[in-house]
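[User]
Protein folding is very new to me. Any chance you could explain this protein sequence and its structure tokens? I have pasted everything here:
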Amino acid sequence: MIRSMWAAASGMQAQSLNIDVIANNLANVNTTGFKRSRAEFQDLLYETMQPPGGSTSENTQAPTGIQIGHGVRPVAVARNFAEGELQLTKNELDLAIEGNGFFQVTLPNGTTAYTRAGAFKLDREGRVVTPDGFLLTPEITVPTDAISLSVGLDGTVSVLVAGDAAPRQLGTIQLARFPNPAGLQSMGKNLFLETEASGAVIVGTAGEQSFGTIAQGFLEMSNVSIVDEMVSMITAQRAYETNSKIVQASDDMLQTANNLRR
């Protein structure tokens, strides 16, 4: 009975974490480029009271044993990098990646971060930046007299300047990818950092070497499904309630045993 209480308590803690993950997913249902997370669990060690295959007589063996588990524990919160739906905005600085890849941005400390959120802006010097002012890498500076800006599928950035007959090329937006994007470290602000688990970054041109293409005038929306998250929330809530009833039932059994009289 004591074992059952600890096992049920571990289940309640696991479902509490599960609800935390689901709540974060739902909170970011409208966050540009957000990737949903999923809590993953693993059963704990087992107490072997009778090993499988143990001898029951001189010539026979038990086909099954008696192994009692000690509950559950969370082992990972895995991020799903499936592509979200693209939303048409018609904004020249809104960019979306159709396929594999991340935009590269430079943080104030010089570190390179990676993002799928392409809602870029111009700072006072005409440089392309994120809403937090982090520079897009490689750096792109738009002239103040530019009439229009266009970004090709391969990331080529061109502008038409007043007085010019033909567009002027400013540079190329390069994309980054990782062998294991699920191993990236989330730092908030729609940004990720490289880790040993993610593998070394691979930088290349959009549309080449398994990289996706860039769509101008679109934003990638969150890949969170409200219906799926609501179903997961109900399942987690019911699992939490059931585990709490196991604790109560174990307590009732202990009380019964304590009230025994000779």
User: Anything to note?
Assistant: The chain has a mean pLDDT of 92. Helices lie at 2-27, 226-258.
